[in-house]
């Protein structure tokens, strides 16, 4: 599945988020007779269903790099690492179309795109995007980014104090928007074509959990939380799928829940016998809702530490699912939705 210095590919897809992979394989399906390279940056995603279907896909898995503006060693290591990876994997590619899927860049992704734009056509695979980076670069940040990437950027964001993890807003970066926008209906069709049956029960619920969701909750004020889990276990046949970036929660161990391997793409699971997909704010809820499944978000059922954050998440789900998701406010209402 992996070869250093991949040659003779027609399309390259840079995926820095899990939904990027769904967009990439949708484009692969459009050109299934061509050769494709999917580059996963800080994303572990099992695309074996597509490989087993005969697609001509190469896959490269990479780790992102970040640097601390006050630590010269991290700046030098980031500089060397990005160039080493680029020379190893991408200098052999010629005349390919390069896709990426967001204008929020992680550091490694942007370094590749900036170099590749000189000899390849760069295409943004989304018609609309969300840009969360609103901090303007100071003189020091611009200097470091110029050293590492060869071009200044306007904005960035920090993680863990002074580690510059993401960058955005380069006015000199050349790309065009995709000609034929990827629609939710097209993604749903692709997922149906290549779905895999890994749950053979006649009736079940699928719960999508993430450490991020639990961190947003105020569990001390969420008096329904334990009752919710008791209901799920005692009255329903429930499977749990954790977000690939995080470990399984303590709730899975405490209640001895049935677990789906976290790196298997949840969107590829055949849910023909699934009564409902349940979660908080995962984008997978949107995908399932757009495919016609009953989807329940628990955002209104529990108390959040930050009401603004809660409103933002719900607005996000409503916007991209066209209001197809249910939001119970009580356990009784939750039970009603499951009936």
CATH topology of the largest domain: Rossmann fold
Query: Which structural category fits the helices and strands?
Result: alpha/beta
**CATH architecture annotation name of the largest domain:** 3-Layer(aba) Sandwich
Q: Detail the poorly predicted runs.
A: 129-134, 157-161
Q: What kind of oligomer do you see?
A: single chain
Main sheet: which strands, in order across?
A: 3-2-1-5-7-11
User: What is the helix/strand order?
Assistant: EHEHEEHEEHEEHEEEHEHHEHEEHEHH
Average residue-wise pLDDT: 78
Given this structure, which CATH class of the largest domain is correct? Alpha Beta
Task: Give the N-to-C terminal Cα separation.
Answer: 44 Å
Shape, per Cα inertia axes: globular
Structure overview:
- With 339 residues, this protein is α/β, with parallel strands linked by helices.
- It folds into two domains: 11-185, 3-Layer(aba) Sandwich (Rossmann fold); 197-338, Isochorismatase-like (Rossmann fold, 3-Layer(aba) Sandwich).
- It has twelve helices and 16 strands.
- The chain has a six-stranded parallel β-sheet, with helices on both faces. Strands 4, 6, 8, 9 and 10 form a five-stranded antiparallel β-sheet that branches.
- Strand 15, helix 10 (283-290) and strand 16 (295-297) form a beta-alpha-beta unit.
- The radius of gyration is 21 Å and the shape is globular.
